């Protein structure tokens, strides 16, 4: 079991990574001296696949447990589902402030986190991510929120968890597409930070896809360590430090929104496409060498992630991109690689190279 601390002074918290991490939950609740109800927010698929792991842990907790089960879809991150979840919780927790327990992937973590941030002006949150994507990225750092039809995560807040329990045992139940989905975020870390992580991924991508335990734990620990360090330096994303975590997300989020959050394209696949297109724009702007662009595309393809997009219009993606939250004073902001292991934040990119790059990868 490995431990990483997110150093945020009074809001600091620990992240535990390893097999059996979820079994720390009862002891942690006891340490909190929390006797109120525990609200577990999950989705139908997660509830079925993780019951053997999470069930005995919940049974050992003396607190009342309320389960809220969401549909397993990005569309659960909607105002309607948020409101319905709040109403279900309020009926059962009228006289006590609950702890919110997010058990699931990125959608569950984002929605449950936003519920925790807003219900009764904020209640404690515990993140138990069950997918690779959530374990390496979305469960850490306190960004929570919901979508609107036009844009992803357009309504949100910063709400740090009290603890994050990353149990690698959950990953054995993942279908291969969900493993690849997580690799979209994993590869991002290899591009934005020096230290040989990208090269490690190039050498070990098959073992990661095969869920080799020792390699997988190294990957998760590395990604979490990188993100914890960045979040500690720029919790609220205002110092141009945390923004590098958005590499691939500007156009990736636009692709998701333009698809109507279709199940045919998940978040990691969208981020992979966003990284390819952002790297192509950087190449067109003479920021990135061709060999580095090719290495990024090759690793993404080797991970089983898409480097081309079919059945979508460039115009629809551009419309969704116009809602990007990184726009400031009317100017766009992109995270572009200048080499593998280093990125820059560039503002006011003309529309032509964006459209040109999209046209190469959207068929």
Could you explain how this protein is built, in words?
Helix 6 runs parallel beside helix 9, helix 7 (176-192) packs antiparallel against helix 8 and helix 10 crosses helix 13 (314-321). The chain is 46% helix and 18% strand. The protein has 2 domains: 2-173, Rossmann fold (3-Layer(aba) Sandwich), CATH 3.40.50; 176-361, Dehydroquinate synthase-like - alpha domain (Dehydroquinate synthase-like, alpha domain, Up-down Bundle), CATH 1.20.1090.10. It is of the alpha/beta class.
Quick tags:
single chain; alpha/beta; 363 residues; 14 helices; two-stranded antiparallel ribbon; globular; Dehydroquinate synthase-like, alpha domain; Rossmann fold; 46% helix; 2 domains
Which regions contain 5 or more consecutive residues with pLDDT less than 50? none
Total domain units: 2
Please outline the major beta sheet: 7 strands, mixed
Q: How many β-strands, per DSSP?
A: 11
Quick structural overview:
The protein is α/β, with parallel strands linked by helices and 363 residues long.
Write the layout of secondary structure elements.
Layout: E1 2-6, E2 13-18, H1 25-31, E3 38-43, H2 44-49, H3 51-59, E4 65-70, H4 79-92, E5 99-104, H5 106-118, E6 125-129, H6 132-138, E7 143-148, E8 151-158, E9 163-167, H7 176-192, H8 197-209, H9 213-233, H10 249-258, H11 267-284, H12 290-302, H13 314-321, E10 333-339, E11 342-347, H14 351-361
Parallel strand pairs: 2-9, 3-4, 3-5, 5-6, 6-9
Antiparallel strand pairs: 1-2, 7-8, 10-11
Helix pairs in contact: 6-7, 6-9, 7-8, 7-11, 8-9, 10-11, 10-13, 11-12, 11-14
């Amino acid at each position: 079991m490995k431990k990483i601390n997110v150093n945020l002074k009074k809001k600091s918290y620990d992240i535990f990574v390893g097999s059996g991490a979820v079994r720390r939950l009862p002891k942690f609740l006891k340490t909190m001296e929390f006797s109120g109800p525990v609200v577990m927010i999950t989705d139908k698929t997660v509830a079925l696949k993780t019951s053997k792991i999470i069930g005995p842990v919940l049974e050992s907790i003396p607190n009342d447990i309320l389960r809220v089960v969401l549909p397993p879809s990005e569309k659960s991150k909607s105002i309607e589902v948020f409101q319905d979840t709040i109403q279900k919780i309020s009926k059962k927790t009228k006289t006590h402030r609950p702890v919110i327990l997010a058990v699931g992937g990125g959608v569950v973590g984002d929605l449950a986190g936003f519920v925790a941030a807003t219900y009764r002006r904020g209640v404690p949150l515990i993140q138990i991510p069950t997918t690779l994507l959530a374990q390496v990225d979305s469960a850490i750092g306190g960004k929570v929120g919901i979508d609107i039809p036009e844009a992803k995560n357009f309504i949100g807040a910063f709400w740090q968890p009290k603890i994050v329990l990353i149990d690698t045992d959950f990953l054995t139940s993942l279908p291969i597409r969900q493993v690849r989905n997580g690799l979209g975020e994993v590869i991002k870390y290899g591009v934005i930070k020096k230290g040989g992580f990208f090269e490690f991924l190039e050498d070990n991508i098959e073992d990661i896809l095969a869920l080799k335990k020792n390699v997988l734990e190294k990957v998760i620990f590395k990604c979490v360590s990188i993100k914890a360090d960045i979040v500690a330096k720029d919790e609220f994303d205002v110092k141009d430090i945390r923004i590098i975590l958005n590499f691939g997300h500007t156009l990736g989020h636009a692709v998701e929104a333009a698809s109507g959050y279709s199940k045919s394209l998940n978040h990691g696949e969208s981020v992979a496409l966003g990284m390819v297109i952002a790297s192509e724009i950087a190449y067109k702007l003479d920021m990135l060498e061709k060999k580095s662009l090719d290495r990024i595309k090759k690793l993404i393809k080797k991970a089983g992630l898409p480097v081309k997009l079919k059945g979508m219009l460039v115009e629809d993606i551009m419309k969704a991109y116009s809602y990007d939250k990184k726009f400031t004073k009317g100017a766009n902001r992109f995270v572009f690689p200048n080499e593998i292991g280093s990125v820059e934040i560039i503002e006011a990119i003309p529309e032509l190279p964006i459209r040109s790059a999209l046209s190469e990868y959207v068929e």
